[in-house]
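Ticket #4471: complex job returned nothing on first submit. Input attached below:
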Amino acid sequence: MKVVDIAIEKLKEAPWNPNRMDEGMLRKLRASVEKYGIVHNLVVRPLGEDDYEVLSGNQRLKVLQEAGFSQVPCVIVEADDARARVLSQALNRIRGEDDLGMRAELLRDVLAAMPADEVVKILPETPESLAAATSLGQESLVDSLRAWENTKGARLHHCTFQLTSSQIEVVEKALTRVLPQARQAKGDSPNDRGTALYILCQSYLKKGGSR
Amino acid sequence: MTSAASVKVSTASVQGAGAGSSPSAALQSIEVTPLPWAAAKAVVKQNHYLHSMPGGTCLAFGAFVGVRLLGALTLGAGPRNAPSLVAGAEAGDCLTLTRLWLSDDLPRNSESRVIAVVLRSLRQHTSIRFLLSYADPSQGHVGTIYQATGWLYTGLSAVMPLYDLGDGVARHSRSVGHSFGSHSVAHFQRHGVPVKLIPQAAKHRYIHFVDPDWRERLLVPVLPYPKKGANP
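Support reply: We reran it on our side without changes. The output follows.
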């Protein structure tokens, strides 16, 4: 296997490559290339007389083109269409799964040496997901359960009804009429429609219902 | 991979005592900590035999040894029929142990240790009164871990059949109810939707009273534990 520097204009994106990267992720890839340069060879196969099709590194190719690189180090393989596709999938899809606890420790080590905003420029994480990932295994069981218990009083109860279209029309009409009153009501529930339903039922009961 | 976990407790009051009288050093090295929902989902989807995170998950815990995350336990909302099992119970009194996965890298009896820590923590820091859990005999499960940790066996629970609405997809009744507002077969028939019911095997139901004072409220008989290999 040889690594060869190939002129970037000779490298062609594989039209069959299913991998797509949104602009946010491309930005991170750009930042990585800017910071570290080309540290990962592209894998290509000959295409026609003088061109090459990229089997692995199609997203990097875009970034390198934008960044003005003229030469790119590539590994050249000979492969027919089927083998090229399989190799491409193998290179991009075969990977292990992170132990999330170990990854959290790794990220904590990184954050001890680098500011978070610099890390999120390069890694797929957002500031929020980075904070969540690094907190793994660090939270107190007792504090967490106490906090969960404390939220119990704030939980509203779901009350689910299944209605036909014509039934819901009637219910909506009634709720809409009561909504202004519900918005004025000082109660425990911040949910106006729930309060409107409560007012309707309370009023019905006060009138004696269908007893 | 087993369905057990190893646990290390983060505070002496919660994790100090194990499932047995003196948990081994290996078991004591397991730490149980809260697990964010997304992390619990990733672990469960990757490792649990059902490869799915149940809806309605309320609490999730991770089992760590050092920095390695080697297990997860999830608790979901209690069943609607909780009051028919325990007198005076309301939905908020009960949770269901929905997933437990522990890596084979953990020592034996880790399941008991993890469950013991979680139960003790719930008793000390929440108002949860009891837990339910189910073991699926169609997977060869009889609830060994619940038997080992002293849960009460209450027999086979009725299980709703799966629904095929004419497209060959087997759906859980809860999913059908969520999507269509009803899982009434008559309702679908009235609207010309063909329904094929796919029977599911009943599951072994276990109950554990986090609050031992609630034990006397149990409304269903406690039965002998089912044995592995015996027909349910």
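The two ends of chain B are 25 Å apart (CA to CA). Closing as resolved unless it happens again.
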